[in-house]
Amino acid sequence: MRLLLVGAALLAGLIAILFAIGAELAIETHAGLMHKHPWLSLLVAPAGFAVLAWLSRRLFPGTEGSGIPQAIAAAMSDDNHVRRQLLSLRIAIAKVFLTLGGLLSGASIGREGPSVQVGASIMHLLAGRKRRRIASSRDLIVAGSGAGIAAAFNTPLGGIMFAIEEMCRHRAFRANSTTLAAVIFAGLMSLAVLGNYTYFGRTPAAIGWPDGIWPVLSCGVAGGLLGGGFARLLIASSRGLPGQVGVFALSRPIAFAAACGLATGVIGLASGGLTYGTGYAESKAALEGSAALPMAFMAMKMAVIWLAFVARIPGGIFAPALAVGAGLGSDIALLLPGESDPAILVLGMVAFLAAMTQAPITSFVIVMEMTANHQMLLPLMATAVVAHGISRSVAPVPLYDALSHPWLRRAEMRLHRALPVGSEKLPPVQS
Protein backbone atom coordinates (compact mmCIF):
# COMPACT_ATOMS: atom_id res chain seq x y z
CA MET A 1 0.00 0.00 0.00
CA ARG A 2 2.79 2.40 0.84
CA LEU A 3 4.55 1.57 -2.39
CA LEU A 4 1.34 2.47 -4.24
CA LEU A 5 1.25 5.80 -2.41
CA VAL A 6 4.88 6.53 -3.22
CA GLY A 7 4.39 5.49 -6.84
CA ALA A 8 1.33 7.73 -7.23
CA ALA A 9 3.18 10.68 -5.67
CA LEU A 10 6.17 10.15 -7.96
CA LEU A 11 3.87 9.91 -10.98
CA ALA A 12 2.06 13.11 -10.01
CA GLY A 13 5.40 14.87 -9.62
CA LEU A 14 6.70 13.53 -12.93
CA ILE A 15 3.61 14.69 -14.83
CA ALA A 16 3.86 18.13 -13.21
CA ILE A 17 7.52 18.36 -14.22
CA LEU A 18 6.87 17.26 -17.80
CA PHE A 19 4.00 19.76 -17.79
CA ALA A 20 6.43 22.50 -16.72
CA ILE A 21 8.90 21.59 -19.47
CA GLY A 22 6.11 21.52 -22.04
CA ALA A 23 4.84 24.88 -20.84
CA GLU A 24 8.27 26.46 -21.31
CA LEU A 25 8.48 25.05 -24.83
CA ALA A 26 4.97 26.29 -25.65
CA ILE A 27 5.74 29.80 -24.37
CA GLU A 28 9.05 29.93 -26.26
CA THR A 29 7.39 28.70 -29.46
CA HIS A 30 4.69 31.35 -29.23
CA ALA A 31 7.23 34.06 -28.39
CA GLY A 32 9.40 33.10 -31.37
CA LEU A 33 6.43 33.16 -33.70
CA MET A 34 5.22 36.52 -32.40
CA HIS A 35 8.72 37.98 -32.69
CA LYS A 36 8.76 37.19 -36.40
CA HIS A 37 5.10 37.85 -37.18
CA PRO A 38 3.52 39.86 -34.30
CA TRP A 39 0.27 40.52 -36.15
CA LEU A 40 -0.31 36.78 -36.46
CA SER A 41 -1.55 36.91 -32.88
CA LEU A 42 -4.82 38.36 -34.17
CA LEU A 43 -5.43 35.01 -35.88
CA VAL A 44 -3.70 32.56 -33.53
CA ALA A 45 -5.31 33.74 -30.29
CA PRO A 46 -8.97 33.78 -31.50
CA ALA A 47 -8.62 30.41 -33.21
CA GLY A 48 -6.85 28.88 -30.22
CA PHE A 49 -9.38 30.19 -27.71
CA ALA A 50 -12.29 28.92 -29.83
CA VAL A 51 -10.82 25.43 -30.28
CA LEU A 52 -9.94 25.11 -26.60
CA ALA A 53 -13.39 26.28 -25.50
CA TRP A 54 -15.05 23.76 -27.82
CA LEU A 55 -12.85 20.86 -26.72
CA SER A 56 -13.25 21.57 -23.01
CA ARG A 57 -17.02 21.97 -23.24
CA ARG A 58 -17.86 19.12 -25.61
CA LEU A 59 -15.19 16.47 -25.17
CA PHE A 60 -13.49 17.08 -21.84
CA PRO A 61 -15.94 18.63 -19.36
CA GLY A 62 -14.29 19.37 -16.03
CA THR A 63 -11.10 20.72 -17.58
CA GLU A 64 -12.22 24.35 -17.84
CA GLY A 65 -10.42 27.01 -15.88
CA SER A 66 -7.91 26.59 -13.10
CA GLY A 67 -8.51 23.13 -11.67
CA ILE A 68 -8.17 24.20 -8.03
CA PRO A 69 -11.95 24.73 -7.59
CA GLN A 70 -12.57 21.27 -9.05
CA ALA A 71 -10.16 19.70 -6.56
CA ILE A 72 -11.79 21.58 -3.67
CA ALA A 73 -15.28 20.57 -4.84
CA ALA A 74 -14.22 16.92 -5.10
CA ALA A 75 -12.77 17.06 -1.59
CA MET A 76 -16.07 18.46 -0.27
CA SER A 77 -18.20 15.69 -1.77
CA ASP A 78 -18.80 12.32 -0.13
CA ASP A 79 -20.05 10.77 -3.38
CA ASN A 80 -17.31 8.99 -5.31
CA HIS A 81 -19.35 9.22 -8.52
CA VAL A 82 -19.46 13.01 -8.16
CA ARG A 83 -15.71 13.09 -7.58
CA ARG A 84 -15.12 11.23 -10.82
CA GLN A 85 -16.91 14.01 -12.67
CA LEU A 86 -14.14 16.36 -11.50
CA LEU A 87 -11.05 14.18 -11.09
CA SER A 88 -9.97 11.37 -13.38
CA LEU A 89 -6.98 10.25 -15.39
CA ARG A 90 -8.76 11.31 -18.59
CA ILE A 91 -9.35 14.80 -17.21
CA ALA A 92 -5.76 15.04 -15.98
CA ILE A 93 -4.22 14.17 -19.34
CA ALA A 94 -6.60 16.41 -21.25
CA LYS A 95 -5.94 19.25 -18.79
CA VAL A 96 -2.21 19.15 -19.52
CA PHE A 97 -2.54 19.24 -23.30
CA LEU A 98 -5.34 21.84 -23.34
CA THR A 99 -3.37 24.16 -21.06
CA LEU A 100 -0.33 23.79 -23.31
CA GLY A 101 -2.60 24.69 -26.22
CA GLY A 102 -3.66 27.84 -24.38
CA LEU A 103 -0.03 28.86 -23.85
CA LEU A 104 0.67 28.22 -27.53
CA SER A 105 -2.23 30.55 -28.31
CA GLY A 106 -0.81 33.33 -26.12
CA ALA A 107 -3.39 33.07 -23.34
CA SER A 108 -2.40 34.55 -19.99
CA ILE A 109 -2.78 31.34 -18.02
CA GLY A 110 -0.61 29.29 -15.69
CA ARG A 111 0.09 25.63 -15.14
CA GLU A 112 0.06 25.61 -11.33
CA GLY A 113 -3.72 25.39 -10.91
CA PRO A 114 -3.96 22.62 -13.52
CA SER A 115 -1.09 20.83 -11.73
CA VAL A 116 -3.27 20.75 -8.61
CA GLN A 117 -6.09 19.06 -10.51
CA VAL A 118 -3.63 16.65 -12.13
CA GLY A 119 -2.04 15.74 -8.79
CA ALA A 120 -5.42 15.29 -7.13
CA SER A 121 -6.62 13.12 -10.04
CA ILE A 122 -3.56 10.86 -9.88
CA MET A 123 -3.78 10.39 -6.11
CA HIS A 124 -7.54 9.87 -6.31
CA LEU A 125 -6.89 6.78 -8.45
CA LEU A 126 -5.87 5.04 -5.23
CA ALA A 127 -9.37 5.67 -3.85
CA GLY A 128 -10.71 3.06 -6.27
CA ARG A 129 -9.18 0.26 -4.21
CA LYS A 130 -11.96 -1.55 -2.39
CA ARG A 131 -9.74 -3.31 0.13
CA ARG A 132 -7.01 -2.01 2.41
CA ARG A 133 -7.14 1.58 1.21
CA ILE A 134 -4.23 3.54 2.63
CA ALA A 135 -6.22 6.75 3.19
CA SER A 136 -9.64 8.25 2.66
CA SER A 137 -10.57 9.74 -0.70
CA ARG A 138 -10.58 13.24 0.77
CA ASP A 139 -7.08 12.84 2.22
CA LEU A 140 -5.79 11.50 -1.08
CA ILE A 141 -7.22 14.51 -2.94
CA VAL A 142 -5.67 16.93 -0.45
CA ALA A 143 -2.32 15.12 -0.69
CA GLY A 144 -2.37 15.15 -4.48
CA SER A 145 -3.20 18.86 -4.55
CA GLY A 146 -0.26 19.68 -2.32
CA ALA A 147 2.01 17.46 -4.40
CA GLY A 148 0.92 19.30 -7.56
CA ILE A 149 1.86 22.69 -6.11
CA ALA A 150 5.14 21.35 -4.69
CA ALA A 151 6.25 19.91 -8.03
CA ALA A 152 4.97 22.81 -10.15
CA PHE A 153 6.81 25.53 -8.18
CA ASN A 154 9.50 23.31 -6.59
CA THR A 155 8.18 24.58 -3.25
CA PRO A 156 7.60 21.63 -0.88
CA LEU A 157 6.74 23.84 2.10
CA GLY A 158 4.35 25.80 -0.09
CA GLY A 159 2.70 22.56 -1.15
CA ILE A 160 2.08 21.53 2.44
CA MET A 161 0.75 24.97 3.36
CA PHE A 162 -1.53 24.96 0.30
CA ALA A 163 -2.97 21.62 1.39
CA ILE A 164 -3.61 22.97 4.89
CA GLU A 165 -4.79 26.50 4.15
CA GLU A 166 -6.67 26.16 0.86
CA MET A 167 -7.77 22.55 0.56
CA CYS A 168 -8.78 22.21 4.23
CA ARG A 169 -10.38 25.63 4.67
CA HIS A 170 -13.66 24.19 5.99
CA ARG A 171 -12.34 21.31 8.05
CA ALA A 172 -9.50 20.64 10.40
CA PHE A 173 -6.31 19.43 8.78
CA ARG A 174 -5.13 16.15 10.19
CA ALA A 175 -1.37 15.87 10.03
CA ASN A 176 -0.93 12.47 8.38
CA SER A 177 1.76 10.67 6.46
CA THR A 178 -0.31 10.68 3.27
CA THR A 179 0.01 14.40 2.58
CA LEU A 180 3.59 14.62 3.80
CA ALA A 181 4.70 11.59 1.76
CA ALA A 182 2.97 12.83 -1.41
CA VAL A 183 4.53 16.29 -1.19
CA ILE A 184 7.98 14.98 -0.27
CA PHE A 185 8.17 12.41 -3.06
CA ALA A 186 6.76 14.83 -5.63
CA GLY A 187 9.45 17.28 -4.52
CA LEU A 188 12.12 14.58 -4.78
CA MET A 189 11.00 13.82 -8.32
CA SER A 190 11.33 17.51 -9.18
CA LEU A 191 14.78 17.58 -7.59
CA ALA A 192 15.88 14.48 -9.52
CA VAL A 193 14.71 15.73 -12.91
CA LEU A 194 15.21 19.51 -12.75
CA GLY A 195 17.80 19.83 -10.01
CA ASN A 196 17.83 22.20 -7.05
CA TYR A 197 16.41 25.27 -8.76
CA THR A 198 14.25 28.16 -7.60
CA TYR A 199 11.37 29.44 -9.71
CA PHE A 200 12.59 33.05 -9.90
CA GLY A 201 16.23 32.34 -9.22
CA ARG A 202 17.87 33.85 -6.16
CA THR A 203 16.77 37.34 -5.20
CA PRO A 204 19.12 38.65 -2.47
CA ALA A 205 17.47 42.08 -2.31
CA ALA A 206 16.08 43.04 1.08
CA ILE A 207 14.61 46.06 2.84
CA GLY A 208 15.63 47.48 6.18
CA TRP A 209 13.51 47.26 9.30
CA PRO A 210 11.75 49.25 10.71
CA ASP A 211 12.37 51.67 7.80
CA GLY A 212 10.77 49.11 5.51
CA ILE A 213 7.38 49.66 7.11
CA TRP A 214 6.38 52.03 4.31
CA PRO A 215 6.94 49.56 1.45
CA VAL A 216 5.16 46.88 3.50
CA LEU A 217 2.13 49.07 4.20
CA SER A 218 2.03 50.46 0.66
CA CYS A 219 2.15 47.04 -0.99
CA GLY A 220 -0.14 45.49 1.61
CA VAL A 221 -2.89 48.09 1.31
CA ALA A 222 -2.66 48.52 -2.47
CA GLY A 223 -2.35 44.79 -3.06
CA GLY A 224 -5.23 44.06 -0.69
CA LEU A 225 -7.57 46.46 -2.46
CA LEU A 226 -6.48 45.39 -5.94
CA GLY A 227 -6.35 41.65 -5.25
CA GLY A 228 -9.63 41.64 -3.34
CA GLY A 229 -11.33 43.68 -6.03
CA PHE A 230 -9.99 41.39 -8.76
CA ALA A 231 -11.17 38.29 -6.90
CA ARG A 232 -14.61 39.84 -6.55
CA LEU A 233 -14.65 40.61 -10.28
CA LEU A 234 -13.75 37.01 -11.12
CA ILE A 235 -16.44 35.64 -8.81
CA ALA A 236 -19.06 37.96 -10.29
CA SER A 237 -17.95 37.11 -13.84
CA SER A 238 -18.24 33.38 -13.14
CA ARG A 239 -21.95 33.91 -12.44
CA GLY A 240 -22.55 35.59 -15.77
CA LEU A 241 -21.73 38.83 -17.54
CA PRO A 242 -24.23 41.69 -17.68
CA GLY A 243 -26.27 42.92 -20.64
CA GLN A 244 -25.87 41.83 -24.22
CA VAL A 245 -22.33 40.61 -23.57
CA GLY A 246 -23.69 38.09 -21.09
CA VAL A 247 -26.36 36.95 -23.54
CA PHE A 248 -23.72 36.53 -26.25
CA ALA A 249 -21.45 34.56 -23.88
CA LEU A 250 -24.26 32.14 -22.97
CA SER A 251 -25.81 31.71 -26.41
CA ARG A 252 -22.58 31.48 -28.42
CA PRO A 253 -19.80 30.47 -26.03
CA ILE A 254 -17.33 29.41 -28.74
CA ALA A 255 -17.69 32.69 -30.64
CA PHE A 256 -17.39 34.56 -27.33
CA ALA A 257 -14.16 32.69 -26.56
CA ALA A 258 -12.82 33.69 -29.98
CA ALA A 259 -13.69 37.33 -29.21
CA CYS A 260 -11.79 37.05 -25.93
CA GLY A 261 -8.84 35.64 -27.87
CA LEU A 262 -8.95 38.55 -30.30
CA ALA A 263 -8.94 41.04 -27.40
CA THR A 264 -6.00 39.15 -25.87
CA GLY A 265 -4.11 39.47 -29.16
CA VAL A 266 -4.82 43.20 -29.39
CA ILE A 267 -3.58 43.81 -25.83
CA GLY A 268 -0.54 41.65 -26.52
CA LEU A 269 0.33 43.78 -29.54
CA ALA A 270 -0.19 46.98 -27.58
CA SER A 271 2.11 45.76 -24.79
CA GLY A 272 4.85 44.65 -27.16
CA GLY A 273 4.25 41.01 -26.28
CA LEU A 274 4.64 41.45 -22.52
CA THR A 275 1.18 40.16 -21.59
CA TYR A 276 1.31 36.77 -23.31
CA GLY A 277 1.68 33.60 -21.24
CA THR A 278 2.31 33.31 -17.53
CA GLY A 279 4.35 36.49 -17.12
CA TYR A 280 7.21 34.49 -15.59
CA ALA A 281 9.93 35.81 -17.91
CA GLU A 282 8.85 39.43 -17.47
CA SER A 283 8.70 39.12 -13.68
CA LYS A 284 12.09 37.40 -13.46
CA ALA A 285 13.72 40.03 -15.68
CA ALA A 286 12.31 42.78 -13.47
CA LEU A 287 13.57 41.04 -10.32
CA GLU A 288 17.03 40.67 -11.82
CA GLY A 289 17.04 44.31 -12.93
CA SER A 290 17.65 43.43 -16.58
CA ALA A 291 14.34 44.91 -17.74
CA ALA A 292 11.73 47.25 -16.28
CA LEU A 293 7.99 46.73 -16.31
CA PRO A 294 5.98 49.59 -17.86
CA MET A 295 3.42 51.31 -15.64
CA ALA A 296 0.53 49.93 -17.69
CA PHE A 297 1.75 46.33 -17.37
CA MET A 298 -0.30 45.61 -14.24
CA ALA A 299 -3.60 46.77 -15.76
CA MET A 300 -2.99 45.04 -19.09
CA LYS A 301 -2.02 41.79 -17.37
CA MET A 302 -5.16 41.82 -15.26
CA ALA A 303 -7.22 42.39 -18.39
CA VAL A 304 -5.80 39.38 -20.26
CA ILE A 305 -6.17 37.15 -17.18
CA TRP A 306 -9.83 38.12 -16.99
CA LEU A 307 -10.32 37.44 -20.70
CA ALA A 308 -8.93 33.91 -20.38
CA PHE A 309 -11.10 33.39 -17.30
CA VAL A 310 -14.41 34.43 -18.88
CA ALA A 311 -13.56 32.51 -22.08
CA ARG A 312 -13.57 29.39 -19.87
CA ILE A 313 -10.48 27.86 -21.45
CA PRO A 314 -8.31 25.52 -19.36
CA GLY A 315 -5.54 27.26 -17.45
CA GLY A 316 -4.81 28.71 -14.03
CA ILE A 317 -4.49 32.23 -12.65
CA PHE A 318 -1.94 31.51 -9.92
CA ALA A 319 1.27 32.30 -11.84
CA PRO A 320 -0.20 35.22 -13.83
CA ALA A 321 -1.27 36.73 -10.49
CA LEU A 322 2.38 36.82 -9.47
CA ALA A 323 3.13 38.83 -12.61
CA VAL A 324 0.35 41.28 -11.71
CA GLY A 325 1.91 41.58 -8.25
CA ALA A 326 5.30 42.29 -9.81
CA GLY A 327 3.70 45.05 -11.87
CA LEU A 328 2.11 46.46 -8.72
CA GLY A 329 5.46 46.42 -6.91
CA SER A 330 7.13 48.08 -9.88
CA ASP A 331 4.60 50.92 -9.83
CA ILE A 332 4.89 51.37 -6.06
CA ALA A 333 8.70 51.42 -6.32
CA LEU A 334 8.40 54.55 -8.49
CA LEU A 335 6.69 56.28 -5.56
CA LEU A 336 9.28 55.16 -3.00
CA PRO A 337 12.68 56.30 -4.28
CA GLY A 338 15.65 55.05 -2.35
CA GLU A 339 14.19 51.62 -1.61
CA SER A 340 15.30 48.39 -3.28
CA ASP A 341 13.12 47.89 -6.36
CA PRO A 342 13.46 44.05 -6.48
CA ALA A 343 12.46 43.82 -2.82
CA ILE A 344 9.33 45.90 -3.43
CA LEU A 345 8.49 43.72 -6.45
CA VAL A 346 8.59 40.66 -4.19
CA LEU A 347 6.33 42.42 -1.68
CA GLY A 348 3.92 43.28 -4.47
CA MET A 349 3.80 39.63 -5.54
CA VAL A 350 2.93 38.32 -2.11
CA ALA A 351 0.44 41.14 -1.49
CA PHE A 352 -1.60 40.53 -4.64
CA LEU A 353 -1.47 36.73 -4.35
CA ALA A 354 -2.47 36.77 -0.67
CA ALA A 355 -5.32 39.18 -1.38
CA MET A 356 -6.63 37.33 -4.42
CA THR A 357 -6.53 33.84 -2.87
CA GLN A 358 -6.99 34.89 0.79
CA ALA A 359 -4.34 32.32 1.68
CA PRO A 360 -1.66 34.54 3.28
CA ILE A 361 0.56 31.83 4.76
CA THR A 362 0.69 29.86 1.51
CA SER A 363 1.43 33.05 -0.40
CA PHE A 364 4.41 34.26 1.60
CA VAL A 365 5.87 30.75 1.94
CA ILE A 366 5.63 30.11 -1.81
CA VAL A 367 7.09 33.51 -2.75
CA MET A 368 9.90 33.08 -0.22
CA GLU A 369 10.76 29.65 -1.64
CA MET A 370 10.51 30.86 -5.24
CA THR A 371 13.00 33.67 -4.62
CA ALA A 372 15.23 31.79 -2.11
CA ASN A 373 15.26 34.93 0.02
CA HIS A 374 14.86 34.19 3.72
CA GLN A 375 15.95 37.71 4.64
CA MET A 376 12.54 38.91 3.45
CA LEU A 377 10.60 36.55 5.71
CA LEU A 378 9.28 39.14 8.17
CA PRO A 379 8.41 41.79 5.53
CA LEU A 380 6.68 39.11 3.44
CA MET A 381 4.68 37.91 6.43
CA ALA A 382 3.66 41.42 7.38
CA THR A 383 2.67 42.30 3.81
CA ALA A 384 0.62 39.12 3.44
CA VAL A 385 -1.24 39.78 6.69
CA VAL A 386 -2.05 43.39 5.75
CA ALA A 387 -3.15 42.44 2.23
CA HIS A 388 -5.29 39.57 3.55
CA GLY A 389 -7.02 41.83 6.07
CA ILE A 390 -7.82 44.46 3.45
CA SER A 391 -8.97 41.84 0.96
CA ARG A 392 -11.47 40.28 3.36
CA SER A 393 -13.26 43.61 3.60
CA VAL A 394 -13.49 43.82 -0.20
CA ALA A 395 -14.27 40.18 -1.04
CA PRO A 396 -15.78 38.36 1.96
CA VAL A 397 -15.73 34.96 0.23
CA PRO A 398 -12.34 33.53 -0.85
CA LEU A 399 -11.94 33.13 -4.60
CA TYR A 400 -11.40 29.40 -4.96
CA ASP A 401 -13.97 28.61 -2.30
CA ALA A 402 -16.61 30.67 -4.13
CA LEU A 403 -15.78 28.99 -7.44
CA SER A 404 -15.80 25.45 -6.05
CA HIS A 405 -19.48 25.34 -5.00
CA PRO A 406 -20.91 25.80 -8.53
CA TRP A 407 -18.60 23.06 -9.75
CA LEU A 408 -19.94 20.72 -7.07
CA ARG A 409 -23.56 21.55 -7.92
CA ARG A 410 -22.92 21.05 -11.62
CA ALA A 411 -21.31 17.64 -11.07
CA GLU A 412 -24.23 16.54 -8.89
CA MET A 413 -26.79 17.75 -11.43
CA ARG A 414 -25.06 16.01 -14.30
CA LEU A 415 -24.84 12.77 -12.35
CA HIS A 416 -28.30 12.61 -10.77
CA ARG A 417 -30.28 14.11 -13.64
CA ALA A 418 -28.25 12.32 -16.31
CA LEU A 419 -27.79 15.53 -18.26
CA PRO A 420 -25.78 15.22 -21.46
CA VAL A 421 -22.24 16.60 -21.58
CA GLY A 422 -22.18 20.24 -22.65
CA SER A 423 -25.92 20.74 -22.02
CA GLU A 424 -26.85 24.41 -22.05
CA LYS A 425 -29.45 23.74 -19.36
CA LEU A 426 -26.67 23.68 -16.82
CA PRO A 427 -25.96 26.89 -14.92
CA PRO A 428 -22.86 28.73 -16.11
CA VAL A 429 -19.80 27.72 -14.13
CA GLN A 430 -16.30 29.12 -14.11
CA SER A 431 -13.24 27.63 -12.49
What does the model show?
- The chain has 431 residues and is mainly alpha-helical.
- It folds into two domains: 1-194, Orthogonal Bundle (Clc chloride channel), CATH 1.10.3080; 212-403, Clc chloride channel.
- 71% of the residues lie in helices and 0% in strands.
- It has 19 helices and no strands.
- It has helices spanning 2-36, 41-59, 68-76, 80-86, 89-104, 112-124, 137-153, 156-165, 177-194, 213-238, 243-251, 253-270, 280-288, 297-311, 318-335, 341-357, 360-371, 377-394, 399-416.
- Helix 4 (80-86) crosses helix 19, helix 8 runs antiparallel to helix 17 and helix 10 (213-238) packs parallel to helix 14.
- The two termini are 33 Å apart.
- The model is unreliable at 421-431 (pLDDT under 50).
- It is found in: Membrane.
- Keywords: Chloride, Chloride channel, Ion channel, Ion transport, Membrane, Transmembrane, Transmembrane helix, Transport.
- Pfam families: Voltage_CLC.
- One of its GO terms (molecular function) is chloride channel activity.
- InterPro entries: Cl-channel_core, ClC, ClC-type_chloride_channel.
